[in-house]
């Protein structure tokens, strides 16, 4: 993205930090510029739900004072970022996209990953729109409205971290935080044409992030450059990835079968080009992908429904109607169904781990196609029209079940709406994913999709 295309804030995080550390810009000027840009342009996208204006400016002033005293301001000095509205921000009420929680007391502390980022000089400037309680793939919220795709505001941004993806894609901020249970980072990142990372389950602390389905939830970043994504992830993770592996040494394969159906010829050709560059002709099938998707859906529904059941019994009508019906249905699932889903999950996870004894990185589409229009209720799957909202996670839900890391990689293409790939690794193998993503970026096959419309 260029400054002319997306406004005055379209600078990468590491570039902003370098300027602030060197005194070429102040953290206050960066933060106030971002806030002004959000106020001027986000009416078009509805990605932001709250601006943390006074607190963000105060933190920026403190950082500028530290720099003036010669102190180290951190690797992300003065870099503004946003958080999906389920991360605790000290002094703010964490609503998880719902009016149900608005009466809660403000958070006493930042979420762990937010605290780590701000300790390195980053500054939280806003909370970002989401599906209520993270239950959805479209960021259509009865309380806070629909988030629109910056590449075409008539289209969905994806969800449930749609506000995070849209804010980055629009150039309002260089990175943002989201959460992923069944695709909630990967899908909006792909549909909005930015980079997104679902880390290995359990690797990055979730403390201070409102849960959805605790046995699947992870938190992770989205960014408009692969370098920024890596740096932000390392800060969130609390450790460096170190040297990345040589891509030529990695065993890379493409997922076929379930993951090769229902995508267009152009999308297939784009993946062909990626695999050709990676010098791989290997195609493998992930066993029982359809059952894995079903099991992931059932576990999510059951855990989410159980979490909310006490409140639903008292205040059901305050929920977004779409969320309410899904949570109530999940709460009523028989325990035997959940047990069977969990048994299958163990079997499926073992099968994926077996695949990683022979392969280092698996490549698959993140979505069946570009973002649907907001007024488009269906997409075509297996030759039939099916609900667009319910089926956007067709390719992300099966992968969620295994808890492996996935890097959502924006595909470069000359026109049309963005598309994205899932780069899938073994547990703890994020370094391999960053190596492949970096190579695809250097080859011009993957990059953050620039906006083609002006504001």
From TrEMBL:
Q: Which SUPFAM superfamilies match?
A: Amidase signature (AS) enzymes
Q: Which Pfam families does the record associate with it?
A: Amidase
Q: Which InterPro entries match?
A: Amidase (IPR000120), Amidase_dom (IPR023631), AS_sf (IPR036928), Carboxybiuret_hydro_AtzE (IPR014087)
Q: Which GO terms describe its molecular function?
A: hydrolase activity
| Key words, A-Z | Hydrolase
- The Amidase domain extends over 31-433
Name this polypeptide is given: AtzE family amidohydrolase
Q: Which organism is it from?
A: Novacetimonas cocois
* Lineage, highest ranks first: Bacteria, Pseudomonadati, Pseudomonadota, Alphaproteobacteria, Acetobacterales
